[in-house]
Amino acid sequence: MINKQVESPAAAVADIVDGSTVMVGGFGEAGSPIELLHALIDKGPGNLTVINNNTGSGHVGLAALIENRQVSKMICSFPRTANSTVFPDLYRAGLIELELVPQGTLAERIRAGGAGIPAFFTATTIGTPLIEGKEVRTIDGRDYVLEYSLKADFALLKSHQADRYGNLTFNKTARNFAPVMAMAATTTIVQTANLVKAGDIDPEIVITPGIFVDRIVTVHDPALESKLVAEGVKYPS
Amino acid sequence: MINKQVESPAAAVADIVDGSTVMVGGFGEAGSPIELLHALIDKGPGNLTVINNNTGSGHVGLAALIENRQVSKMICSFPRTANSTVFPDLYRAGLIELELVPQGTLAERIRAGGAGIPAFFTATTIGTPLIEGKEVRTIDGRDYVLEYSLKADFALLKSHQADRYGNLTFNKTARNFAPVMAMAATTTIVQTANLVKAGDIDPEIVITPGIFVDRIVTVHDPALESKLVAEGVKYPS
Amino acid sequence: MNDIITGWNREQMAQRAAVDIPDGCYVNLGIGIPEKVAKYVPEGREVIYHTENGLLGMGSTPEPDKQDPELINAGKKPVSAIPGAAYFHHADSFAMIRGHHIDICVLGAMQVAENGDLANWSTGAADAIPAVGGAMDLVAGVKTIYVITQHNTRDGSAKLLKKCDFPLTGQAVVSRVYTDLAVINITRQGFEVIELAPDIEFDYVQQRTDAKLINKT
Amino acid sequence: MNDIITGWNREQMAQRAAVDIPDGCYVNLGIGIPEKVAKYVPEGREVIYHTENGLLGMGSTPEPDKQDPELINAGKKPVSAIPGAAYFHHADSFAMIRGHHIDICVLGAMQVAENGDLANWSTGAADAIPAVGGAMDLVAGVKTIYVITQHNTRDGSAKLLKKCDFPLTGQAVVSRVYTDLAVINITRQGFEVIELAPDIEFDYVQQRTDAKLINKT
Predict the structure, then answer these.
(1) Distance between CA D60 and CA D82 in Å, rounded?
(2) Which of A25, A115, A156, A221 could serve as A36's disulfide partner, Cβ 3.0–4.6 Å?
(3) What's the complex ipTM?
(4) C4 occurs within a structural domain
């Protein structure tokens, strides 16, 4: 019987090693897999390349992973944040690398990675410094830049519901990058608040089919980043 | 108030003119918008380029549109069909043009058309006669062919549910090409069996958001292609 | 230039822009003053708001007890979903943007050039943390780009220029600029002032602009 | 070659292939004999079937009164959905294929070459109506491609060849061939026979093949 459940966040991230590329779901705190990120801090691999829209906030979750110096490179669209100095400080000190990618190009590069499309053309960034060194081509009278797909060794995601096959639904705008990251990672690890029986999710409303998911771990009451930040929590404490 | 309803299939297709490019939803009969196709036959524009996975069956729906000599070119992946000689006869007589596109490349070219991606690379067709005349590039040691997006003036689609904004759900495998065609057409026309109030479709389960839909026409009991074919129906009779 | 005259305030700028949002539009509003546009769309018009993090049919800010930290807008603030809304993932959301499905985007700006070039993501300063978000996707993909901005920076320099100094967000993308002083169309001829804020003279606006203005008021 | 010996029949060919489908696989089955593989997967294994028209978790053919003409497989025949199934659109379905998410695809063939080239879509005849469907996407994207085919055509010509005459579906894509006579791996050395049908001799198979076979039985 197919059963993708694992017993704990620690077990779920146990094979993430130094130098891995890790996609982390979430846009701000919506969809951020805090418990998986904290397990990754406990486990401790370094020299990670992390792909996320942002760089976390406060001193928990993704910001804590960066603060713990496990991340050598961030690929993201918006590394500045109102309530974290973790990334900016390391970046100004030259201690972390940044690949800045516009948000839509980031989503599409990840989707391409999952869909077996090695490269595509887009008009986004034409006329800006971000096209530097990239191939530009005129198609039907408009200029486009060639962008390459993004893949990862692991994806860490948060879902609303999951079944043993790995079928997923999400909560509102927590969906954001998760469906495309699930497709683009070799090993997709999902924390879910609600593990349900196979068949309990109507096939019409499955957002991420189980084929894209490798491991499911139940986290009943996931922490909220904003609450932890407001409380001044620092991980590891 | 936004209200995309129109009163009849005839009104829905009234501005489709000679030479239009028309995407038609459906894989076989699943998702085939028969009533819209019959309205298009009644309206009578010719020299159409039609994009569909197949070429219809029997003498109704898409096959009838072709038989009525309104279609000068088909773009599809599988023009042969067990129960129709309409396309094969015209094709052998040199009376209709065919652009043969593998099914996945067809879906992706349409999705690209809707997503503002003018071209992308894919490994599908490498080593086959279908790459003739196309650009091939080696990326990370594998050969890929450059494929261009497909757009259309109109899409004719069939949905299960729709609301006045044009939010759609589909019935099982009738979903097939509809969501990507809705994105890729300038004017997307949808026949629906169930018009529901705005808000009756849970925002989590909307498959095609209303932004991609221009016109909704209610067809309560849509005809089934296989039933019409079995009954020997010919349209127009 | 010491003689400061008050034009439209932030609310009035948003209100003025809202007049130009037609009925039935799909609209994306940037962070800051652009967000305020929604509350001023004239009665009788229905406008659908897109937020690029994955919601079409964004509604107003809910009461604190109705907020869900996972129902937020692109500025990461709590929002609601109207009846008839839809959630979707980021690739689908930016397909809407890149594929020219959004009718209007209203953005803030650091600089706008007379040919419609927009700079709103970086001052280009060496120690700045570059951050672009969805701005480059929006200006490349949305059919019509409006900018709402103060006419001048806090230190009085011009934001409307012959040519932008800062790195661009997009080339020749802005159609119209709403400032505290005027409404200005961007045309092949350059900046055309089509409306002045109450008690603002054309010459006063021209003095505060680093490009030639054409008076079409 | 008149002396025809009966090897495996169609059901047995499907049954033999089914033995090689591991537990927990995601599998796409082509039209014809490959479809039959599903019913022979050994007990105790759970396999998830993908049909490229938009369903993961395809179940068996339902009773006529339970059929929905809009719940069909890629061969356009009525199917069912298992508990835990998911529907999706064509672009997502072929993302699964093209993105190497499907583990095994079992297809029919017109010709297979000793380097794994597959021809299964066109005889190349001038009056043929070309039709490719999803075959080229499947062979380009699925991790492992198995072929089930009669060893010879009805007129006795070889289908396993040094080089395909017909237009290719894909280059060097086939891993293993299940025929009525043998199970044959495709390796760098060429065709390796790993199993013979009951009462079939290696030489008999060699005579009916237009390429050198290596005996690994």
Answers:
(1) 9
(2) A156
(3) 0.97
(4) no
